[in-house]
Specification:
Helix content: 55-70%
Strand order of the largest sheet: 1-2
Distance between the termini: 133 Å
Shape: elongated
Largest sheet: 2 strands, antiparallel
Order of helices and strands: HHHHHHHHEEHHH
CATH class of one domain: Mainly Alpha
CATH superfamily of one domain: Cytochrome c-like domain
Structural class: mainly alpha
Strand content: under 5%
CATH architecture of one domain: Orthogonal Bundle
Oligomer: single chain
Amino acid sequence: MSRTSMATAAKTSKKGRRHPLANVALIAIGLLFSGGAYAAFSSATASADEAEPSSQEQLQHGEKLFAANCATCHGMNLEGTENGPTLIGVGAASVDFQVGTGRMPLQMQGPQARVKPKQFSESDTSALAAYVASFAPGPGIPDEKYLDAQGDAANGAELFRINCAMCHNVAGAGGALTEGKFAPPLTGVSEAHIYEAMITGPQNMPVFNDANLSPEDKRDIITALKYAENTPSVGGFGLGSLGPVSEGLFIWIFGLGSIVAITVWITAKSN
């Protein structure tokens, strides 16, 4: 090979050779794009989940209420203790549900928290929710447009049967679970608390985020539950909507009992 050919080959190899910093630049560009995409997604999720920014006075009031009523079990910094889980990242919706239904503060240790008369006013509950939500992003208070119970009741009933009826009963009458736990009845529960339960998963309930059930689906489920609650049973006395067990027991006691009573009466009459 001539010197000219060798020189040309050397120049070509130098041009095709990658710069030592090229890999670093590619990694940096990849991190920049992935970080930007994550930041955009996080901000969008936070804006959808979080409520309006709270005032400093509300946060201070919530902090005082938390220290006096909740910190014993959940820790002064929401870090949790052996008596209660951490509240970092649970969001305002979880606090509004637990405190708004009277489940918290907990009355006594047990398989699960029970509904009882709530101990805080609406403003105090909002202050507690805002304080807890200020620590980390989490599910926020649901938008009012999903709580009007004006969705598709038929679609909601189908979604409820698929996702909820195995625990709450097809009519929302509740049911027993294992180890003393239970799925509570859904009659008399506010639309906001039903929605908040779906997005926070209290007690033994799974979380139904927007990837599982869209906000419109949750609205439809609420619509179906409120329709069933406010519509009289077309079959007469519903017996608590507990299903074939209560219906069979009713027939056994009253139906068979009536037959026995009539038989005794006829026999006594003939004698």
